[in-house]
């Protein structure tokens, strides 16, 4: 995972800036063009997250084409998935200067360029740069604004809007798996990547649909929301604290700095006026100087606010439960992405390709994942159910599936386990709620941004690690066993730390009672 809290309409517990002047509501808030924003975000989830979940198809082609180890080849997919999440906080700097729309359009071009250049790859290392880094950064530049813009356009229906847009991940994984399989069969993997690059240019259209809101229409009165998907809307990008409706960083700078900047620009304008009589060359040079001065001011403001937003959260690391949550995140996400990358080859080794072609196992995970997010979110919202307990139970179910998956060697058995993996991984919708319970609403955006980065690191190293284990043992069994055990270690950290924190106050109260 940009705007000031009041500008977006999120309640961060600070009502001191609530204005007294009534502001005319924008008809596009919770309606009108807002649904085009949802449609745009839905397509972004399909084209980015969906295609990343279907990379197992291309991974098999790369193994046959370049004849490299599975550990080395898996780095291509993991770089793309990991960088998409890891660069999230740094994309905020682009958004602060260019806005959400321009950032998304540039990201769409970069993502398409990565796909197209990868079609001419001569080795795996070439794919590291073109697909892993270039397409990965482009994906991050589109994905982040897509989440932020939905949060800006919706207040009353924010949960519904985010829920509809994020279902694009499941639909995308299902559609892109079938599409890439067909393209690779009919045209070969190189032409398939070229075609996919052309399709990815539609991300620029999605970015163009991200029309900024006018600041005068934004209500300064915060709106409270409690749904899990709503919490994800205001935290997934980490940047929703500092983006204004036009997608540009907009917290007011200090008065002294503001005055200094205005003096610089006024002096340039004065020189420009005086230079009108001296000729066109001087005018041209002065205009360049004015543009550079304005750009410098914008960059300084954006970087200062970006830096304070992302690196001003050191106090979070004094919370031992939150630190345990980070450790859990470092192990958890890899257990979800490893099956997407390596399952197609496992199916091929078990001679189940004919059955898998009818309904791919990765598509089963993707489809059931949609229902898992919705059902687990509904269950956790019940007044008699603890969100923390639902979160832990889903994690236990997922780690059990990861550990038992190597034992299944029939299509039916693998399909059942994959369905459970898809359903239990629906706990992703609960992560913002759990994070808020751990650190409070005030630090929610910063904390969730750190968790997303940890997930990106997990996605970065998980698939190559599984491939490396295969290269040593010639079996995928140990890859899933080790990943499952590391995942279990993260869950144990989550179980131990709350017990320690609850125990300490009890000991203090006992001592006070004795005194």
Automatic annotation (TrEMBL):
In the UniProt record, what gene is named as encoding this protein? Answer: Slc16a14
May I ask which residue range the UniProt record assigns to the signal sequence?
Answer: none
- Please identify the protein, giving its name as recorded: MOT14 protein
Q: Which keywords fit this entry according to its UniProt record?
A: Membrane, Transmembrane, Transmembrane helix
Question: Which parts of the sequence belong to the Major facilitator superfamily (MFS) profile domain?
Answer: 37-502
Offer an example of a GO molecular function term for this protein: monocarboxylic acid transmembrane transporter activity
InterPro entries registered for this protein in UniProt: MFS, MFS_dom, MFS_trans_sf, Proton-linked_MCT
- Lineage, broadest ranks: Eukaryota, Metazoa, Chordata, Craniata, Vertebrata
Cellular-component GO terms for this entry: membrane
